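Long-time lurker, first post. I've been practising inverse folding by hand and with some scripts of my own, and I keep getting stuck on stretches where the structure tokens seem ambiguous. Below is the full token string for one chain I'm working on. Before anyone asks, I'm not after the true native sequence, just a reasonable design that respects the backbone. If someone could post their per-position residues I'd love to compare against what I wrote down in my notebook.
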């Protein structure tokens, strides 16, 4: 059974009153191996069969998107590639005589997904909800953004790097808010904070310690 809590929106309504909306509380994450066990238990497929088909499907979706197509998988949804400029490349201004970005400056930055209506219906029809006894924790407003930046810089005076988890612990911010703020600091040349690594291995360091 899934649980939910009524969470307050960051923005009030037109009359200035607070708005509450339902939000599901995630209870861990199911991975491919978990789903393979369930599929094999209810079918004659072997785990190798299922894993092989999933990998083949993922590769084929990637191939079709790389060829400029959106990919529709009935019962799941539609996948499409989203482009962006590579790191360090300046945006095109569109002004006469300005430098134009070529294909070498662009890469697939993200993949957009729109769920099939049948997937939404199946999820909704199988979802049994109960109200959570615990409320969502809000990000702390104990410090201003500028004070949080100084806290991060002070941490880096005695530590080689700063993780998102460290920033959460030091400032009271929730993980998503902390990650977004650190990303903004790293993008600001004047912040004194840079980043190294990528995705789950990304850490934040003093800018003069950033290596290429």
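-- Answer (accepted) --
I ran through it position by position. Result:
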């Amino acid at each position: 059974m899934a649980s939910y809590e009524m969470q307050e929106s960051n923005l009030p309504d037109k009359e200035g009153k607070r708005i509450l909306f339902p939000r599901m509380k995630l209870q861990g994450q199911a991975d491919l191996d978990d789903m393979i066990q369930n599929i094999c238990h209810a079918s004659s497929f072997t785990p190798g069969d299922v894993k092989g088909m999933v990998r083949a499907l993922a590769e084929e979706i990637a191939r079709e998107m790389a060829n400029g197509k959106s990919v529709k998988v009935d019962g799941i949804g539609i996948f499409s590639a989203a482009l962006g400029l590579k790191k360090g490349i300046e945006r095109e201004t569109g002004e006469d005589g300005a430098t134009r970005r070529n294909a070498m400056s662009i890469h697939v930055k993200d993949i957009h997904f729109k769920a099939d209506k049948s997937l939404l219906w199946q999820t909704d029809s199988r979802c049994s909800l109960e109200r959570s006894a615990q409320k969502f924790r809000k990000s702390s407003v104990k410090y201003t953004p500028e004070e949080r930046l100084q806290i991060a810089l002070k941490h880096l005076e005695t530590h080689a790097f700063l993780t998102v988890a460290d920033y959460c612990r030091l400032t009271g911010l929730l993980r998503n808010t902390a990650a977004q703020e650190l990303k903004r600091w790293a993008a600001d040349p004047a912040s004194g904070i840079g980043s190294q690594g990528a995705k789950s291995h990304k850490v934040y360091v003093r800018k003069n310690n950033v290596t290429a």
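A couple of notes from the structure itself: Residues 145-209 form a domain with the Arc Repressor Mutant, subunit A fold (CATH 1.10.10.10). The helical segments are 32-41, 47-66, 117-126, 145-158, 164-171, 175-187. Happy to go over any region you disagree with.
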